[in-house]
Design a protein that fits this description.
Helices cover 85% and strands 0% of the residues. The chain is an all-alpha fold and 434 residues long. Helix 13 packs parallel to helix 16. The longest helix is centred in the middle third of the chain and has 36 residues.
Amino acid sequence: MNNIIKNGKNLLFFRQTNILSAATVIGLAVLGSRVLGLLRDRLLTSLPVDQLDIYFAAFRLPDLIFQILVMGALTTAFIPVITSYLSKGEEGEAWKVSSTIINLAIGFFVILAILIFVFAYPLSQFVAPGFPPEKLAIMTDLTRIMLVGQLFFVLSNFLSAIIQSSKRFLIPALAPMAYNLGIILGILFLSPTIGIYGPAWGVILGTFLHFLIQLPVAKHMGFKYGFVLDIKNKGVSEIGKLMGPRTLGLAVAQISFTVDTILASLISTSSITVFNFASHLQQLPIGLFGATIAQAALPTLSEEQGQDNLENFKSTVLTSFHQILFLTLPAAAILIVLRIPIVRLVFGSITFPWEATVLTGKTMAFLGVGIFAQSIIQLLVRGFYALRDSATPVKIGIGAFVINIIGSLILIKVYNLPVWGLAISSSIADLINA
């Protein structure tokens, strides 16, 4: 028994020292997470479709502040800078910088969360102008509930970044499974009595589990949190400079997602649900192949850049690029060709109407055209971040955003296409971005 416990701990704390082993670990964990995510969506279809529209629309505002505040810092600057400190054996400085960034993120999050909590109803009117007052009232409640969960997400994703900086990928990759499990428990045990509020409370449970599962690994690494605000620290200043353009880029992307939600709410009752379900299926190969390989490559790319080893850097980028294409192109073809059977298999035939199945299938097919593009974007932007250039991806991303918005407005408002018109515009923008 002692050997089993010891071997289990070694597996959890083991470092993945090359991109292939890291990508394999992340990929297997992401596969498990995506399967749970599809099970979550399958269970959600037991609820009325018009209520699901409210649930997905309510995600918009909490997710917006999380993406802008946290993801901009993590992907662009936090991991490369912390990796640089750890590779030099400067753990104390790494923890000091980490604590300062975490404290700043929490402070900004609390301020924005309070504003959204207070003005949740008018903001819901803006995000879903096609909703009647009774749906907006429920959306307001769900938004406020899910804001609480985002606080745990802020803390948890910084823990993920710290752990990944030391080339340990297993637990951060397993954390999304805990998140989906929390939502599933909310659907199973709370929805029978409180309806659509069940998965919203499940979000809080899921984000807490996402945070809790990573604490032991961070502690094992020696991470020491401190209530410090050393904003003049060199590492903190560097992260601030690098994340500025990325935060702008994420803000632009979130505006794009919000516009899609606004237009979907104006198309038909189930359009928001259809677009979200189609996006979840499209994200399966992107998360499984594109994001995992790119995520696994970032610490190595940052290390090679820090050592001024440009030849190895280029080799790493090209090898990862080819691996992503090799895996995502066939996956995209399968999703496009088998769109209706896949939607029927995942979301069921009893509770999910046939009309919604066909519409989701068409939307997924048009989104599928951009799967390989979205996947290689994951790698290319991280290559720029490792080179400490966060401006170039943002400039290109803003151009793609403008194309997506203009295309969506033309296809939906001028040509009056169904919700799959948003998918066409999205894929064109992704191809140009890549």
